[in-house]
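Session log. Operator J.P. requested a structure for one protein chain; no other inputs attached. Running the standard single-chain path with token output.
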Amino acid sequence: MIIRALQKELTECAREYPAVTIFGPRQSGKTTLAKTTFPHLPYFSFEDPDVRLRAEQDPRTLLNEFSRGAILDEVQRVPDLLSYLQGAIDNDPVPGKFILTGSHQPLIHQAVTQSLAGRTAVLELLPFSLHELQAYHRPEGSAFSHILNGFYPRIHENQLNPRRFYRAYLSTYVERDLRMLIHLKDLSRFETLLRLLAGRTGQLINYDSLASDTGVSATTIKSWISILKACYILFELPPYFANISKQVIKSPKLYFTDTGLACFLLNLHTIDQVERDPLRGNLYENLLIMDQVKQLANAGNPTHLYFYRDSHGREVDLLIPKGTRLIPVEIKSSATFHPDFLKGIKNFKKTVGDEKCLPGQVWYNGETEHEFKGVQIRNPLIHPKG
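Structure written below.
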């Protein structure tokens, strides 16, 4: 077991707030993190039918057992309990008294923001980051092995076969949770959508095209994608168009929170298959953008990241805000650097002006780190800082 990067922020939040709520996908390690960080607190899981029944039928009596605090796991199963928890906190607002976890946001986010506003800090725990995975001190894998294996802790802690893990993950968690949220009777069209989305990783969302290929309405596609984002299956990267007079694309891009699940949906089961697949560049982009998301989440920061693309197809893969300026980043799966990689960065600088743009970066799959015309060229797997 390794120390999660979020633990520092979690500990500091618990010193300031009576409750801390940890959101994140199933199997991302929320329970382990809570138990490891707060071993003195008793643990209750609302996945347990008996505990859940008590919370539903007699919440006040159950909360009396939490007089000294508790870890309350999977609270999305009993959202009504949060109203009673508010009273318990107000009666004794001791910092760090309650640690809450939730796996899918739709059922709990509104309840948390309404009932526990000002009483809880909210954090997100995603699967391992590259830095966390490297903390195992194992031989470093290639970018494509990371893409294939994904980053869920159990895969690495228990040396699981990724194909078996994601097959079980899809049927046990994704389909179960989503069936409950969407009230699906037939999962076949939804499964079709998942595979279509995997095949369009890193591409602009086209609801009409997805609707046509799936056989449902565009409105239904929007609803399903909204649920997938809220359940941490998908991540939406918004476009940047503030104060830009030129015609720019305003549709977001979609990435998978975990590349291993995307590979499973694409029927990619070996490193060689990933390296040779037409989507290798998209998956490599997915890998590095999600790692940036994880770094921000682990520090307790909002994920204000963007991409840029104009109507002529000129784009920058990632824009990272730093103060009032932006760092433009081009992401390439090639192991060889080419000066052409800088085209998008140069165009973006001309578009927004130097006062809005910091020196850019190229993230690629090569071994050397250097500068070219003021742009930093590096491989984040080998040179993680910069």
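Operator note: The chain has a mean pLDDT of 91.
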